Amino acid sequence: MTCTTDAVVLPQAVRIVTLALNTYFVGMMKDVTLIAVIGLTEFMRTAQTVVSRTVRPFEIYTFVAVVYLILTITFSCIVAWMERRVPVY
């Protein structure tokens, strides 16, 4: 039974779980709680400090939004690549 589990069932389960976890991770990346953990609050606080010094909020907040967009798109592309690469039987 152990050989069957190791050779057949486990690889199929890993493929299915990997895809689900990747999708879940991208969803969490978009949530506020994970963003706070990786430093968006500090990033926004720094942006507020720079805005108060330069009085140019549009450029600063646009930069912050672009960085967040790049992070989200990068992780989404990685997950899409992994989904194409790992077949589900």
Describe the overall structure.
The protein is mainly α. Helices cover 90% and strands 0% of the residues. It contains four helices and no strands. The protein has helices at 2-30, 32-38, 40-54, 57-85. Helix 1 packs antiparallel against helix 4 and helix 3 (40-54) packs antiparallel against helix 4 (57-85). The two termini are 21 Å apart. The model has no long low-confidence stretch (mean pLDDT 77).
Output the number of helix runs.
4
Model regions low in confidence, pLDDT < 50 over at least 5 residues: none
Q: Please state the average pLDDT score.
A: 77
The description of the largest β-sheet is:
none
Rg to the nearest angstrom? 20 Å
Instruction: Give, in order, the helices and strands.
Output: HHHH
Quick take:
The chain has four helices and no strands. It has helices at 2-30, 32-38, 40-54, 57-85.
Note the topology.
Elements: H1 2-30, H2 32-38, H3 40-54, H4 57-85
Which short descriptors sum up this protein?
rod-shaped, 89 residues, mainly alpha
